[in-house]
Structure formats: C-alpha cells, structure tokens
Amino acid sequence: MACLGRLTNWDKTSFRIDSCFTVSQVYQCGRKADGDLCQKCLERPREGKYQTRILHGLVSEPIPLGSQVYGSPVYWQKMKKFEEAGKVLSLDARAWIEGAGAAQAQTEKEGGWKVQRPSAKEVEKEMRKAASSKAKAKDSSTLVKAKAAQNLKEIFKPVKVRFKEVDKPPVKMETDSIDVCKMVIGDVSVFIVDELVFDTDGEKMGDHIGYYRNEEFFEL
C-alpha cells in the first residue's frame, strides 16, 4: 500500500504571503509501505524547525499544530490576523493559495483529511492548546536539566588548581584555514563550508544538513 505520510518541501513550494506569514504546500509520500508509513517516514521527527524534515502526520488525519503548511491551524490563525488588519491578498498570493488548495485536494481524493476553515474560536482554542503543551514541555526539560546538573556535581568533585596563567606571551602556530560562508536558503540561515551545508542558531555552526552545488540546495 502507499505511504500516508504528509510531507512538504519548504524550499520548492513555500510562499511568503505577508511579513511573518510564510507557508508551504503538502503532498503525500506515496512510497510503498507495509502499514500506514514507509520506513523513511517512520524515521522522520514529528516536530522541529525544519518543515521539510518532519512528518506532518498522516494525510488521513488533521494537520498537526506545529505544521506551517496550507490548511494548518497556524495557517488559519495567520490568515485571520492578516484579514483583521485590513490587508488584501496580492494576485501572486491568490494564485499560490489556489495551487496549495489543489495540492491538498489531491490528497483528499484518495481519502485524505479534508481541509476546512475553522471558526475563530476553534483557531484560538487550538493555538492555546499548542502554547500550553509547549510550556509544559519546556518546564519538563528545565527540570531534567536541573537534575542532570545536580547529578554531575555529585559525580565530579572539585579538583586542585595545578596550572596558572603567566605573563609570558603564548606561542603562535600556523594552522590550516577554510572559508565559511553564511547565507539564507528559503527562510533558514545556514553556514556553507566548500559544498557542505550546516544549520545554525545564529552564530554557532550546527549539524550537517545537506550540500550546496551549482546554486542549488540538496538536503540529506
């Protein structure tokens, strides 16, 4: 049977409707699977800041709260704010929304979950639920880190200082160097070393996430 994973490709199908309002189209994985999901989709994370990497649930289920795709709770919330501000969609935005709706409709033809605009109260309820869940997860993470820090203090005892700084200048040695380029791909800041692409939290280089060749990004 075909994999029911709901996926998106942020670099290829995302569109910026307004400031802080960028969304992407969805598509069904469709690979061969023994159950609802293929092996690759089973290994995908359910949450994360990189929308292309994560699994946005099954096409037969409602879109998760953290997904920034057409028809998601985030999409309707931002659309509500956009309309309440008295703004009007551009021709390009209307065309993109029409295309995104067509992509969603394609999944619905094969039994996928049907996108319907919720009421304003439903949108607010869902977003409060998401905020509450995020706060609980943060509190839990803080508690775990505190316990881990306490355990480390019990395991590693203070050591005696055996070396001290002196006024003598340090010895300088020659080392190899590489060129590092910082740029934005889609809406994500990255570091590029040769053809290797690494994510970043703004200043520090993070995980290796793909390659950049001939001005095109290839995700791992």
Which key terms come to mind for this protein?
alpha+beta; two-stranded antiparallel ribbon; 5 helices; extended
Order of strands in the sheet with the most strands?
5-6-7-8-9
What class would the helix/strand composition place it in? alpha+beta
Could you describe the largest sheet, including whether it forms a barrel? 5 strands, antiparallel
SSE pattern: EHEEEHHHHEEEEE
Spatial separation of the terminal alpha carbons: 25 Å
The rounded Rg comes to 23 Å
Overall pLDDT level: 85
Care to count the β-strands? 9
| Helical run tally | 5
Strand content: 15-25%
| Overall spatial form | extended
Poorly predicted ranges: none
Helix content: 25-40%
Task: Report on this structure.
With 220 residues, the chain is α+β, with helices and mostly antiparallel strands. The chain is 34% helix and 19% strand. Among the domains are: 6-117, no CATH class; 180-219, no CATH class. It has helices spanning 10-13, 39-42, 73-84, 91-109, 120-155, and strands spanning 6-7, 15-18, 21-23, 27-28, 180-185, 188-193, 196-200, 205-213, 216-219. The strands form three sheets. Strands 5-6-7-8-9 form a five-stranded antiparallel sheet, with no helix packed on it. A two-stranded antiparallel sheet has the order 1-4. A two-stranded antiparallel ribbon has the order 2-3. Strand 8 and strand 9 (216-219) form a beta hairpin. The mean pLDDT is 85.
